[in-house]
Amino acid sequence: MSAPVCPKLTVRVRLPAMGVGPLLRVLVLVFGLAFAAVASAAQPDVLLVHAAGDPVSELDARGIREALQEQRAPFDELALAPGQRLPSDALDGRTALALAHVELDPADAAAVEAWVQAGGGLFATGRSAFGLQAALGLASVQALARERPGQSTLDEIRFGVAHPAATGSYWNGASMQVPPMPGSELPTVPQLLNRAVWPAYTAASAGAETLARWRGSSDAWSVADAAPAVFTHAHGEGRTLWFGALPGVYADWAYPLGWREPIQEGLAWVNRRGALVQLGHWPQAKRAAYAFTADTESAAMRTAVPVLLDMFERLQLGDFGTFFLVGTTGGDPGSEGAVENPQIVQALLEAGAEIAGHGDVHLRFVGQSEAVQTQRLQSMRQLIESSAPGVPPLLGFRAPGLAIDRATWRAAATAGLAYDSSDQDVWCECSLPWWTGEVWSLPPTAPMDYILIDQYQLSGAQLEAVMIDKAAYVASRRGLFNWVTHPWVLEGRTAGDVSGPPVRPGVMANVEAILSAARDDGRFWMQRLDTVLAWWLQREDLRIELVERRVDLLRLRLHNDGDIAVAGASLWLRPPPAEFPWQVRLDGVVANTEARPHGLGAPIDYRVLVVPQLGTGASAEITLELQRPTEVFADGFEG
After folding, report:
1. Rounded to whole angstroms, how far apart are CA atoms 136 and 496?
2. What sign has the CA pseudo-torsion 605, 611, 616, 617?
3. CA 212 from centroid of its chain's CA atoms
4. Which three-class secondary structure state does DSSP give residue 277?
5. Using one digit for the tens of pLDDT, what is the confidence trace for 66-76?
């Protein structure tokens, strides 16, 4: 489930759009006129419009708002009262418009349609399609009856096209195939939508491309073949994207975090003429974070953990791996913990791995009172932290069976823990750290090894295919690949006897091949979970400020409002299309940027800038400037 966005994620970056016509722009760029180009009003490219007091519209707006805030992307917001028209200048200087389930006045809809025709980008949901069918490429729009007598309820949307706007929502690799992936573990991408009953719409196409459909079969893993749900369209010089429904809500009215991704990618795709400025998720412009974690709960740790630590050293993965240890014996049959294995605790400390908690004993927490869970977590900390000299205070926890409830999070906060890595997110509804309201959540984002190997008997080669592919998918989302393993599984034991002799071939060689592939790929930041969280908390303190905007120049400041210096923060930049190349300067010095295409199908060409160091309370100035020719004519009259 989702949680409120932390306050530091709600800072809006104000980035004004260019309001200069194309002819004047050419004159400024080519002739180098003596007067300076006049900056337009300090407004962002993107305008979000929703209907005040309409719960569906306001919830859709919340999802769009949180998606933009996560990226620190610029936007303005307008709530329309019943009967209120768009201001006459609402679209002036805008390059993208997001309509959150709001039906416009016919005159306003006509103005929006003309604006798209001239090059604007429209992202619309639900009832926003009425009156805008021409711009959206739709022949008709109608309400969708999701409850169907005698048939399964339409409660899921699946993407079926490798389109830039479907990046992070569509995937067709090995982790989406049966075999090798067991059918009960699908889908492994965020294909769920509208779990609760919520208004939805469908349409017939009049030129628009269908990106996603509702799944109509009672078979959970069948191809989505029911009514169309998501459309893209090119209208004149502009682009449009329409969702017949956004995710709606869970039972506790928490917004599904996984649906930030299609919102972000959709808005970036339609906004083809504006400047895209995004704060990178990971240091040094890495595309994804990568964590190897092991639930270390049985005597198998005495042989498996040293093998893993040797493997990390051989792969030159220093300070890598998070090992969730049980405190002591007394839980499920065959389980034991740090108290019985101080030498393993010491080996982990010496190797630079993170030691985290897996319970006082290996018994489930879910369903117990908050007081009982708090006592157990406090006991877990005492047992593990005193098991060997030098064990630091535990920060992380993963529940046995990954089973938790809200009481677990409250108990973890009371016990002084910083994060939970339970609540398995194999379907990747959210592949980034998020604040639960009590502790941070770093959910596992890969299928567990014992399900794939012990339960479904996948071979080592099949495990390789699934895990390498799933990591590539998470990288397409710029997320966190959090891999859950169990030493007893890796060595060939079964759930029936986690401490007995191996009964099938082990997969340690395959684990090494999987980690080698990630290391050699170059896109992954391979770290312990506590290091991942420490970075994310530093990122929370970063904000972007607009300093100046002209037709040929964009000046930004990246601020560090925290009390810790930040190394390696990155900005993902896509300047507006222009006749000449853009040059990037960092604090006045020409800076190197790396090309970073992102997206399925026809990727967006980002330039990524890394800021090497940003001290406490410090700022870095980033300037993007068009490189105009200094001499146009040779007759001496160019002045």
Report:
1. 56
2. negative
3. 20
4. strand
5. 999 999 988 99
